[in-house]
Amino acid sequence: AQPEQQQQEQQEEEEQKKKEKGDEYSAKGRDCRGPLAGEESKVLDAGLIFQLRGLDARLWEPHRWYPLYRDWIDGRSFNSFLQGVLHFGGPAVVVVRSQAGEVFGAVS
Predict the structure, then answer these.
(1) Of the residues 40, 62, 71, 108, which has the maximum number of CB atoms within 10 A of its CB?
(2) Which of 107, 40, 89, 47 lies closest to 67 in space, CA to CA?
(3) Cβ-proximal residues to 67 (8 Å cutoff; 6+ apart), any chain
């Protein structure tokens, strides 16, 4: 029974490490409430998310997108941005809305 318990503890530790790295699209445990992050985004809407997913098949894998960084919650410093995205292991989309209302970004 003891080796089974050790194995279970090891699996739990590995899962926790994956979550911390972002491999499970955990993004600090934030849930976007629905299939698309557009419900919790001030930049993305369902149409734009659909277009972005068309750029790379990997963007269809997670059913939900989880925000790694949002300036209105995480602050507007570059350091806050890096803390949110630096160790994320999956594909990522960076989207910015300018003061003029233009939307631009990048897909990794």
Answers:
(1) 40
(2) 40
(3) 27, 30, 32, 37, 40, 41
